[in-house]
Amino acid sequence: MESLYLLIPLSIVVVFIALWVFFTASDGGQFDDLVGPGLRVLQDDDTTPEAASKPSAGERD
Q1: CB under 8 Å to 25, separation ≥6 — which residues?
Q2: Residue 12 maps to a domain
Q3: Is 48 within the bounds of a domain?
Q4: For residue 19, what are the domain limits?
Q5: 29 falls within a domain
Q6: pLDDT 10s per residue in the chain (61 long)?
Q7: SS3 of 1-50
Q8: How far apart are CA 46 and CA 34, in angstroms?
Q9: 61 DSSP assignment
Q10: For residue 15, is it within any domain?
């Protein structure tokens, strides 16, 4: 029974810390775009800046 005197306030403190972390992340924009990164993985973008700046064999004079 004495352990409840420690565990109940400790659990309340843990809940408030978890809520604080969640709302801090929410205010910081952590959850603004949940779909974009998943779709960005599917885009096929094989061009690199080096490859884009070099002319291809057919474009040389």
Answers
A1: 31
A2: yes
A3: no
A4: 1-42
A5: yes
A6: 899 999 999 999 999 999 999 999 999 888 888 888 888 888 877 666 665 666 666 665 5
A7: CHHHHHHHHHHHHHHHHHHHHHHHHHHCCCCCCCCHHHHHHHCCCCCCHH
A8: 24
A9: -
A10: yes
